[in-house]
Specification:
The protein has 64 residues and is mostly helical. The protein contains three helices and no strands. The radius of gyration is 13 Å and the shape is globular.
Length: 64
């Protein structure tokens, strides 16, 4: 998890992805804990962008 003095919703989004990639449900829960409605919207947007990028790379390489 990011330990900076001011943790942003972007930090939360990336921390949640890292936790998921490591099959660490506790890290995912901690990354998303305490977010307000605006932060949830930003987390959703960041993760949606990561998903679109990943899908684009998969399509370019021909892998599914």
């Amino acid at each position: 998890m990011s330990d900076g003095p001011h943790r942003t919703s972007h930090d939360a989004a990336l921390d949640a992805v890292r936790g998921y990639a490591h099959s660490d449900a506790v890290a995912v829960r901690e990354a998303l804990a305490g977010l307000d409605a605006r932060a949830w919207t930003e987390v959703y947007a960041v993760q949606g962008g990561l998903l679109r990028s990943t899908i684009s790379i998969m399509e370019l390489t021909g892998r599914h």
